[in-house]
């Protein structure tokens, strides 16, 4: 796997893509900081509204803050829509493609369908879900989880960012009503199928020589907060034997996570850590850390987390540090709807597109929606496989191939 | 060693101590966040001025922002002063005693000398040095280092806090002139001796059954910043073999630091860490960490740091992570002036005080001043040995014993 820094690569020249690129871009990394309900997010939401209005699409913001743009069918009911889209928020210093490629491609696919004279008998929609990355409030796919009732509104309202601002406060600050958030009972009637196009977050398609792929399943995955509680002391005077330093079992847990992931055939990452109080010349009183764990099946996921916590607790006992864990989110394996997947693969094959079927370790809004309605995913080739990084990249020709594939699939689904 | 939470313990009832206790106190930890040139610091500086004026002491702020209060001798020259004091700033969530005990005790010792009718033939001063902990700008004993010329003003002005605010900007914001900072060539003439009273940051005095001790030497010590530079990637899709995760060699370094310290007979602590960008579902691009290392002699200190860096680099090589280190501060062993120490011990013995002589691993302004003028330290018993923590504690009777000892020492030094 080689790095492909986006800085030196030609960017997709689609006007919608070009107009989105500057928003929320952070220098000097060149990555994006599009956190929900911030100024950068507001700029992205304005961009969405403008893109919809330029296309005479009706814009709608649902009770959870997710944005929808509707191409209503000239005849036929207002229900049973076919919706494409993804999200606009980013991880800290994320890439340009993860999320936005799916939203831009959905608008571009509608343009292409209209050029081709496609006449849908069902509404066609574009959606941008809020807080997919969980970068601000800690719960991934928050917008789709709320909409489908996977997370309770009471719990969601109390989620707080690093500064202690709650979701309720942030939504109110953005002009939304946090009291209205929650599941939409009409969702299944209104939406017949959801197709999320997304940049691949690995390099399997590149190995297969394919520009576009179809999602098979999403690995079960979750996030655990691990608290290491020791005792603050002076770094220059406290004997080693007297220390209760929480950084030591944290370090043991980081190394154990890598070892356990290799043993189980899974993925484990510890990348978020807060040392309390965090001065250089004092021993910490506590360390808070987050474990991201993913595995091909749930048995292996639980074995993985069990092994890591066992090592963390053993190291904690050795240093008189209390170690506790809290599961912040847990998503079971997601198998996408088989009938929908077959229709997608058949439509692409009919248009001469070879689209291999792939599993993924990444969570997506399509995975959450798959719990209540037929959902499918299209992946666009990522030559380096790098994601959640400014170096994330897809070739312009592959972005265009993604739009063509998405338009083909939407036309197939919306005309019957 | 047992914890002694200050919350449940009686606090010294000296009015000056009581008036200082609420300033910069942070809830819910009950610890202090008195960072240089902040509102909390400004409140402490106002407190110093008020304490001095209540005692008819002349207040003076030197070019580096250190505060002085002078009891001028009625006859005799204005030079060759005997000065006591310490600092008012704190580590994050520090205790009430580290620093402030020395300043309050210096004022209280002057009160006691006056009650006893002591008539100094030299000026007697109280000093509060700025940024002793280095909690805001990263360099410990910054005020005394500037005053004695140990750090260049150009370098100091550019030191920046976590928000990128430079020392120059922070000083200007506090009404001080950063262009004037630097060594005071008249210091040695003006000050004949400095005595810093400080809470012990260990429990040796408790083991010896003594309320007060005298400083022998300060271990050589330093602070190193270690940068681990890897590559940001998606936590859910990047194969273990493709990762360049900087958290792994950081964890290896934390464990190596403890092991090397035990091997060398020294102290090593890694308590400050910043993961970049630090999202839970992305692999970090970089980890910045700080190593605090202290040893009985310089040979062992350098061996300690060498062992730790060797392990960190080996782990970096294993994970394709670049590891570099920068020495941010390094203080050689400090032996306090032998003549002054003998006079202090003799004066205390003459007053019936058994004050054992102790080495310490902690750096102090007295250690910096010892490079240019005679300096001594008095320690006050800390039953639990806990420091740099809200649980730091000294018994009221021991605080009072410290004042009596300091007054005895100052009277001995200032009357000849």
Describe the 3D structure:
- The structure is a homodimer of 416-residue chains.
- By secondary structure, chain A is of the alpha+beta class.
- Chain A is 34% helix and 23% strand.
- In chain A, strands 3, 4, 5, 6, 7, 8, 15, 16 and 17 form a 9-stranded mixed β-sheet that branches. A 4-stranded antiparallel β-sheet of chain A has the order 11-13-9-14, covered by helices on one side.
- The interface between A and B is large, with 73 and 73 residues.
**Fraction of residues in helix of chain A:** 25-40%
Low-pLDDT stretches of chain A: 1-6
Compressed to H and E, one letter per element, the order of chain A equals HEEHEEEHEHHHHEHEEEHEEEHEEHEHEH
Major sheet of chain A: size, sense and barrel closure?
9 strands, mixed
Strand elements of chain A, count:
17
Oligomeric form:
homodimer
The greatest inter-chain interface is formed by: A-B, 73 and 73 residues
Give me the number of helical elements of chain A: 13
Mean pLDDT of chain A comes to: 94
Shape of chain A: globular
Strand content of chain A: 15-25%
* Radius of gyration of chain A (Å): 22 Å
Q: First CA to last CA of chain A: what distance?
A: 42 Å
């Amino acid at each position: 796997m080689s790095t492909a820094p986006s800085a030196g690569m030609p960017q997709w020249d689609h006007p919608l893509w070009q107009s989105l690129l500057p928003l929320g871009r952070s220098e000097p990394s060149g990555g994006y900081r599009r956190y929900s309900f911030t100024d950068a997010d507001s700029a992205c939401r304005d961009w969405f509204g403008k893109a919809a209005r330029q296309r005479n699409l009706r814009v709608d913001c649902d009770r959870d803050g997710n944005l929808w743009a509707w191409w209503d069918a000239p005849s036929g009911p207002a229900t049973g829509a076919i919706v494409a889209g993804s999200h606009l928020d980013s991880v800290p210093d994320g890439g340009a493609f993860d999320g936005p490629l799916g939203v831009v491609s959905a608008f571009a696919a509608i343009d292409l369908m209209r050029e081709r004279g496609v006449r849908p008998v069902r509404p066609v929609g574009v959606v941008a879900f809020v807080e997919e990355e969980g970068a601000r409030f800690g719960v991934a796919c928050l917008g789709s989880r709320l909409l489908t009732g996977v997370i309770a509104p009471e719990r969601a309202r109390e989620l707080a960012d690093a500064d202690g601002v709650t979701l309720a406060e942030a939504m109110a600050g953005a002009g939304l009503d946090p009291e209205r958030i929650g599941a939409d009972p009409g969702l299944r009637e209104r939406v017949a199928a959801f197709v999320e196009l997304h940049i691949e977050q690995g390099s399997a398609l590149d190995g297969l020589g394919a520009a576009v792929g179809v999602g098979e399943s999403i690995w079960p995955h979750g996030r655990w907060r691990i608290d290491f509680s020791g005792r603050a002391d002076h770094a220059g005077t406290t004997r080693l034997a007297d220390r209760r330093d929480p950084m030591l079992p944290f370090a043991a847990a980081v190394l154990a996570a890598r070892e356990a992931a290799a043993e189980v055939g899974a993925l484990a990452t510890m990348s978020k850590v807060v040392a309390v109080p965090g001065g250089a010349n004092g021993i910490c009183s506590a360390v808070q850390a987050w474990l991201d764990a993913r595995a091909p099946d749930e048995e292996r996921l639980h074995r993985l987390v069990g092994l890591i916590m066992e090592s963390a607790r053993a190291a904690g006992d050795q240093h008189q540090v209390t170690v506790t864990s809290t599961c912040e989110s847990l998503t079971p394996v997601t198998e996408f709807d088989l009938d929908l997947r077959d229709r997608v693969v058949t439509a692409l094959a009919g248009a001469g597109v070879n689209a291999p079927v792939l599993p993924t370790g990444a969570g997506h809004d399509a995975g959450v929606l798959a719990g209540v309605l037929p959902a499918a995913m299209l992946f666009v080739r990522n030559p380096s496989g790098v994601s959640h990084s400014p170096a994330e990249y897809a070739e312009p020709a592959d972005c265009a191939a993604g739009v063509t594939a998405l338009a083909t699939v939407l036309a197939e689904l919306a005309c019957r």
